Structure formats: C-alpha cells, structure tokens
Amino acid sequence: MFERRVDELPSSYLVPQESGNRTGVRRLSITDATGAGLKLNADPKAPVECTLSPYTAFELENAAHAWELPDVHYTVVTVAGRQMGVGGDDSWGAPVHDEYLIPANRDMVFEFTLSKYNA
C-alpha cells in the first residue's frame, strides 16, 4: 500500500506540467483528514491509469513558474484506460515505438467503480 498527500504528488519541474500518472491501478482511496472520501475499484484483469493533482490541466498550462499556481484547495482525479507517452528514445522528436502506440482506429473500453469511502 502506498500513501501520499495530493500536494506531494506533482514533480517539481522547472515549468509546471502534468505529472504523476500511475499505471496498473486496481484500487484507489482518496480521503480527507477524517478518512471520508472516494474509492475506485477497477477490474483486477484490466487495471486503469490514474493521476491525482492539486491543479487542473488549465492551471498547469497557464503557469510558467510554480509560484504562479493557485493555492491548493481541491483534488483533480483523472482516470484513463491507457495513456501513451510523448516520445520514443529521446525528448526532442523521436517517435513512439510501434509496440507502445495506442491504435486510434478502434474502440477501446475500460471500466471502474467509484463509491463513497469511510475508513
């Protein structure tokens, strides 16, 4: 079991950006200080990917420096069936290797259950 505060999850990149995607997620609990919150369950045979962030994508895209981000006052939860990386062997233009591409020409489905949680 891993446990982190949401405000500890973002990577401290020079320019703020999305980070911290977790793959192979089967169970996730998001709770407040009292232990109340949400619980996510995915099919153990078909785990999902999750990102928890104290910032929206809009806030991250519009901040050139960390000090431009707003005070933390909510949690943004992103759940995806799969997510593809941005590059291949380097960060300056190499394409993603074929075996890591997500086909855009077919439907894909993923499922999870979201419910109330009290520790």
Automatic annotation (TrEMBL):
| Domain of life, per lineage | Bacteria
- Name the chemical reaction catalysed here: Hydrolysis of terminal non-reducing beta-D-galactose residues in beta-D-galactosides
The EC designation for this entry is 3.2.1.23
InterPro entries, per this entry? B-gal_small/dom_5, Bact_Beta-galactosidase, Gal_mutarotase_sf_dom, GH-type_carb-bd
Q: Name one Pfam family in it.
A: Bgal_small_N
Annotated Beta galactosidase small chain/ domain ranges read 1-115
Q: Which UniProt keywords apply?
A: Glycosidase, Hydrolase
The protein here is known as: beta-galactosidase
